[in-house]
Amino acid sequence: SYTQFEHRALRLSAPVVAPGAPVEVEVQVTNRGAVAGDEVVQLYVRWLDSSRPRPRLALRGFRRVTLAPGETETVRLRLAAEDLAGWDDAAQRLTVEPGAVELLVGASSADLRQRARLNVRA
Length: 122
Hints:
Elements: E1 5-12, E2 16-17, E3 23-31, E4 37-47, E5 58-67, E6 72-79, E7 86-88, E8 93-95, E9 99-108, E10 111-120
């Protein structure tokens, strides 16, 4: 993009995500530049206390927005507990592990601008 975007005011609809009870993740995105542009808002997860091997970061949602100069839009992404499932060797299936995760929002995995903590119930 030929412009600059600001991400702010990350908000979760609930502090806990559980099977059947997804969380809405909202962030305000503003075009601070002088020309219109597209921004791909990306939602990553970092597991804070997993008992299994997990990636350092995992992409769990994204949305492209087109904004005019000075325009702000609230971007909403939905995160379900099932989106956080990992392989359980003992059960031989994907399972949701209870614990804490960090949600990170930004323009890429190298450009994370907002973060929030979320508790996971299995």
